[in-house]
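EI: anyone free to look at a 392-residue chain?
SC: sure, send it
EI:
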Amino acid sequence: MIPALLPTYSRAPLTFERGEGAWLTTTDGRRFLDLGAGIAVNALGHAHPALVEALTVQAHKVWHLSNLYDIPEQQALAEALVEKTFADTCFFTNSGTEACELAVKMARKYWHDKGAPERVEIITFSGAFHGRSSAGIAAAGSEKMTKGFGPLLPGFVHLPFGDHDALESAITDKTAAILIEPIQGEGGIKPVPDHCLKGLRDLCDTHGILLILDEVQCGVGRTGRLFAHEWAGITPDIMMIAKGIGGGFPLGGVLATEEAASGMTAGTHGSTYGGNPLGCAVGKAVLDIVSDPDFLSDVNRKAGLLRQKLEGLVAAHPEVFTGVRGSGLMLGLVCKAPNTSLVSAGYDADLLTVPAADNTVRILPPLTLTDKDIAEAVIRLDQAASAVMTPA
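SC: here you go
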């Protein structure tokens, strides 16, 4: 008999009832150190006072207003994002998946309105993850994502990750945009080198096509800059955000230049819940904290400390690990042993991590974790690695 909850997840037998900072407590009193942060969602950890206050204050005012009306909280967050990024405008969604849908529509509508409706193809890369909607799985293209869900949305050109020659030859008079994650998350914490991001920007400029960045997982301070592409000194035309911007409240968005968004006029897109007052009030509180230069500087300091300790962990357990990769507090332990074994051993050590492709374990802690948390994290990761080496 099918359970009440559709069985699309393979869930760990853990039930959490409360959290604080980088820690979660189960219903039976176990205290877990959270190095997953809800898959890079809880950017400020659990029960952050500023987010609790923002949500509580707004909850006493108004929860939902249709986008038929002005929403002050939405306007305030939009203006703050525009001020702090490359963007001239933004549209709010409930998730990264919905942001992908709009980014695809925006790129194709741009070319339609420019008199080139044949320019519908969007170039994407192996290992990508852009959500689980029809457009998202078609963009990723992997069998794991697409099997059984055909016919797929056409118009995506899939290329090997890092194959520059293939990219050059794939651009045609049908190409609308290139879509890429500055750091692949689900794909195994694979950063795109800064010089390659610069090369992508130059390539798009040379051919007059749009650059779409998916910063759903790597954005909102996770790499030590507000958005990961800033390290390369470039700007996209369209960018997808979600996860960390809501700090745990469902919130996403698409940021764009005025030119890229020029086709999106009244009636071309909409959302019932996107940009609701609760989400935007929380999002503004998150952005105010994460965008502070001192906060980002501390993220970089802690990221350096954590990476140093993880490199030591890898050296101590060569039978389990082959290396560390990533940026900021978006790190991956590349495993020799099965990554799922390490994640499971982490549960026994009261530690939460997140598996990814390429036999990688993701380390995505709250940006607010302390030096003491980092020291404890490595102790527990060492316990988990030792358990993998000497299974019971």
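EI: The CA atoms of residues 254 and 283 lie 14 Å apart.
SC: 👍
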